[in-house]
Amino acid sequence: AAGMNVLRSTREALAARGARLRQAVGPASLALRGTHVAGAVGAGGLAWSASGGEARHVAWVGVALLAVWGGVRPGGRAPALLFGALAAWWVVVGGRTPPVAWAALAVLVAVAHLGAAYAAALPAHAALTPASTRAVARRWAEYLGVTAAGGVLVVAVASLPDAVPRGSGWAAAVVVAVVAGGLAVAVRWPGE
């Protein structure tokens, strides 16, 4: 009888915690958290597909757990740990992938990053109006556009024929182009 009481009280405590969590997170925050999880799981899936051996399953489960943890607490350590784990995994397996996979990973990580950052900054019960939704969608499109353009630029430089010398000048040009694009997105244009 004592064991049943412990199980019942545990079940009731978990149900109460779930109800409080559902009340604390509004639909806008929930959508952003879901975007974080989807982008992170997609990036993990891309790394999983480039990996070999049984260790990739363990790594993918770790990335998925960090993604869910980041979805629950987007302002905590989980997103940083997740991006670190993805970076380490990609350093190990990225050399065996086509350059397009690098650009795809950059976009998926950007989606996960945006989801976590916006979910952490958004008040739990904030309501998105049509105007704020358009503004956020435009900002996301700009950010993801610069990320995709940077990825395409990296792919283009990596795909140059061997006759074209590739040295530190090309790397500097890519970095300058990506930073300039990021700054252009960050600057508030007149009339905004």
Q: Could you tell me the strand content as a percent range?
A: under 5%
Number of helical segments? 7
End-to-end separation: 66 Å
| Low-confidence spans | none
Keywords:
mainly alpha
Give a description of the structure.
This protein is an all-alpha fold and 192 residues long. Helices cover 79% and strands 0% of the residues. The protein contains seven helices and no strands. It has helices spanning 2-24, 27-50, 55-72, 78-93, 99-121, 130-158, 168-186. Helix 2 (27-50) runs parallel beside helix 4 (78-93), helix 2 packs antiparallel against helix 5 (99-121) and helix 6 runs antiparallel to helix 7. The longest helix is centred in the last third of the chain and has 29 residues, at 130-158. It is flat and about 75 Å long. The model has no long low-confidence stretch (mean pLDDT 79).
Fold blueprint:
Elements: H1 2-24, H2 27-50, H3 55-72, H4 78-93, H5 99-121, H6 130-158, H7 168-186
Describe this structure in a few short sentences.
By secondary structure, the chain is an all-alpha fold. The chain has helices spanning 2-24, 27-50, 55-72, 78-93, 99-121, 130-158, 168-186.
